[in-house]
Amino acid sequence: MTGQPLLSVKDLRVEFPSRRGVLTAIDGISFDLREGEVLGVVGESGAGKSLTGTAVIGLLEPPGRIAGGEIRLKGERIDNLPPAAMRKLRGKRIGMVFQDPLTSLNPLFTIGDQIIETIMTHLPVSERQARDRAVALLEEVGIPAAGQRLSAYPHQFSGGMRQRVVIALALCAEPELVIADEPTTALDVSVQSQIIRLLQRVCRDHGTAVMLITHDMGVIAETADRVAVMYSGRIAEIGPVRDVIKSPSHPYTIGLMGAIPSLTGDHDRLTQIPGSMPRLDSIPTGCAFNPRCALTMDRCRVERPDLIPAGESQAACWKLLESEEASR
Amino acid sequence: MSTAAQPAVADTGPVVEVRSLSRTFDVSKPWLNRVLERSPRAFLKAAQDISFSISKGETFALVGESGSGKSTVAKMVVGLLEASAGEIRIDGVDMRSRHQAGQEMRELRRRIQMIFQDPYASLNPRWRVDRIIAEPIRAFRLESSEDAIAARVGELLELVRLHPRDGAKYPHEFSGGQRQRICIARALASKPEFLVCDEPTSALDVSVQAQILNLMRDLQDEFGLTYLFISHDLAVVRHMARRIGVMYLGRLVEVAESRELFRNPRHPYTRMLLAAIPDLEMTGTPRRPVEGEIPNPINPPSGCAFHPRCPLANDRCKRDLPLLREIGSTGVACHAVEEGRT
User: Fold this and answer.
1) What is the CATH number of the domain that holds B186?
2) Within an 8 Å CB–CB cutoff, is residue B235 touching chain A?
3) Is the CB of B289 inside 8 Å of chain A's CB atoms?
4) Is residue B291 part of a domain?
5) B123, pLDDT greater than 60
6) What is the pLDDT of residue B147?
7) Do B206 and A269 touch (CB under 8 A)?
8) How many CB pairs lie under 8 A apart between chains A and B?
């Protein structure tokens, strides 16, 4: 790894103060994202994957707050920017694609109004140039008859077409990073594959890095270069996508992969991880996964593991350290 | 119109037989609008000419994208929705014969239960779990004393791997997966033989989904249950079902044994669906791009509804509706497959 990472997150903590004490939703996560790279962030609901995305783009809903750590975009800290500076950066340097395309578009304005407004907010162009650019973008994301569709309202598009518009909107100021939060979850499989390909293609063409947040391992396998597996607000395992999927190291990742019904193999039973993810107010001490883990040792119950190298990837599990020491 | 192939193990005969089942919804605007705007009545054909049979102890699955009519079929089979045409026979008894003796109908209802997609919406938030699970027992008068009912509820909770003490809690105290277990316990309370499961795991995370799918299989082995399993997830369906029906815009386009369907999909739509699933095996095989989206079901394309998206379509496909025809043990509704244009 040479040069500066595009996005660098160090020891990020996100907390929600509540009447019953402070809930730590994200507890010390660190990762880097290189230019043009696609980083998948997977996890089950409540793992903190979406919150990681919202923290990076500075859209945490109060009372949620960044309580520690730092986020750097090309070396420059962005987690403590004043709201006005953050607003400038959002959309310009970091684009966002949300899960539900119907709620991320304003139903009262035409698609054209929304794209042209965004372009003119971030780029020094005239309205005419902005309009041309909007048409070009819509064509690029595969909207037929883009010129005429500018005057259409969001409800006049199908779900897949709407998500294409949202992608165009995210890309309109040539951002360096796009955060895509479950971009295909609301879509059917056949449309999902179109949108994934589109996102992959346009980001490659523009050299945009992508942080792809999803619960779907299949989508990650198809799209991402590296993947971070999250559990209870922490990163359980991070590494090149092939290593993590084909030879996972963390017991949680192993269980997760076994729990996915396969399209080719012949398993009579799926691997079962007992129990479910702990609630934020009752995260166990030590490794958050220890009550559900088959390999739990005494150390796992008291001390939280850091990310430990495991082949090409890194996993937060004491067992790995033990096997590493044994092999020495 | 041919029915789906009979499976080899059908020594007990089909438990569920569905023949030419159709359902049309009237989606017209109100009368005044129709007069003023001169718009005609509009009908949505949610399910058309659906036929299949399920043998005892078997799992038959219906897959399809949203709007394909799979849930409509499920609702008709349990009797929550009346069919516009066609018949449903369960153990030879026609579900539609309302004039049948009430007792017989009641007995039939007891034997069919349903598990819904959303475990948050299908449990009454104001009832304690034991009351929810006891309701079918009370409704069908399966136990006489309160003690017997309580004992049975405890038994059911243990059956779905919950603790009998959990009966005193309210639904909101449980996670999604646990709630789906409660739904399963309630469905099993009337000792049914046939369960209709409409997307039972779509609202759940993968690790919880695995728990529920394993549980459903264990219960099937234990009680010899017959499942009609509805899902949009092909991998889940492949894991659960022995036979699969693929639906597109209200029609069955292919019915096949599970293995056969995945090894040798025949209908172009099935092939497209299989090609569209993200590949977890990372074989690196380039995927064929999928064209287009599902058309509006109120105005479906003429002929074969899939023809605008089909790479094999010709004039005949635009004109004539293909019927489900048997090729070996597989039923396919496609002119191209029939004519050998592949």
Assistant:
1) 3.40.50.300
2) yes
3) yes
4) no
5) yes
6) 93
7) no
8) 119
